[in-house]
Specification:
The structure is a homodimer.
Chain A: H1 15-22, H2 27-33, E1 39-40, H3 41-47, H4 53-65, E2 69-74, E3 80-85, H5 87-106
Antiparallel strand pairs in A: 1-3, 2-3
The structure holds a DNA duplex.
Chain lengths: ~120, ~120
DNA sequence: TCCATTTCTTACCAGAAAGTCAGTATATGA
DNA sequence: TCATATACTGACTTTCTGGTAAGAAATGGA
């Protein structure tokens, strides 16, 4: 594995490191998709259609290294790999739900996320 | 003001847009620093020493546009500008606290945020 | 006159993050 | 023999983010 870029964040009562761990475009989404149990790589890909394979793998690997995600491979052909949340990943997911709720309540139809503005 | 880059996020039960709004290196930190009332630009700068003026202004402007932050200028010389949270910004801050707690409990001494790894 | 103060703007640049696309391995079934 | 499915890897390119440095405006004070 090659050198992973530091995802550096200013410290701030714990919030900085958190964004270091789930910052970026995909991590939180992936975490969310894993919340109801183990999912195969391919299935995960289908659940998040916009992501590229490369990104999905890259993010999963980083999350695995950070102890959020568990990876289990079955030696079959064609190969099968299941991803699931660790206890830590699950707890992070829990900590994320208020934020998710906030989004649902306050960001419906908000221009951010699908438009450009001046 | 020039075209602001879209901060595009994949939709996911509200979580995508949320990261569109507080994603990036500084927003959450700024939000946090505003939690105990209005702060002058200069004071904010001193509270977050690592941030550059350009970034601070840029992020504040985006947060203002997103309705998270209120900007009040006093016509004095030298100029004085106060920033404070809107109700929306405050509620986002609240939604952020579990995440912050999670970070404090689970990320103490974690390599992310101040190191490089392989 | 010249300097300091404060908030902000602009131009430019480096590096990081994310995207595209082609390729690899292996057993199975047609 | 050949295509298929699956989970990846690597090279390359594009887009985005963040950083530095310089300067503008306006007034009061040395």
């Amino acid at each position: 594995m090659d050198k992973v870029a530091i995802r550096k964040q200013p410290y701030n009562d714990g919030l900085g490191p958190v964004f270091g761990i789930i910052g970026g475009k995909w991590k939180a989404v992936i975490l969310w998709e894993l919340s109801d149990g183990a999912v195969r790589f391919g299935a995960l890909k289908r659940r998040i259609p916009q992501i590229s394979e490369k990104m999905l793998i890259q993010q999963l690997r980083e999350m695995e290294a950070d102890g959020l995600v568990h990876r289990e491979m079955f030696h079959q052909v064609p190969p099968r790999v299941d991803y699931s949340l660790t206890r830590l990943g699950g707890s992070l997911n829990d900590a994320l739900t208020p934020l998710c709720e906030w989004g649902k309540q306050n960001l419906q139809g908000h221009p951010v996320a699908d438009e450009t503005r001046d």
